[in-house]
Amino acid sequence: MKINIDIDLSPKEAREMLGLPDIEPMQKATMKKIQEKIDQGIEEMSDPELLLKRYLPLGIQGIEQFQQFMSMAAKAATGKSNKDD
What we know:
- The protein has helices spanning 11-18, 24-46, 48-55, 59-78.
- By secondary structure, it is mostly helical.
- The N and C termini lie far apart (93 Å).
């Protein structure tokens, strides 16, 4: 013997029937915050000054420090000292 039961419920009705909480307000608030962050990111990407500040927080000084670090690392790897300059 086979018994088939078809239940036609929306997701909201199924949650209510199973006693699950209604998370729709929380989901809407979260999606709104995510959308605001995305919009803010798009605005920052279109402003070259903000973009450079984000990727080069120390500006030219940061680039110079990185070059000095790489130079010292290369000299250490080849066995040269800073006195050889």
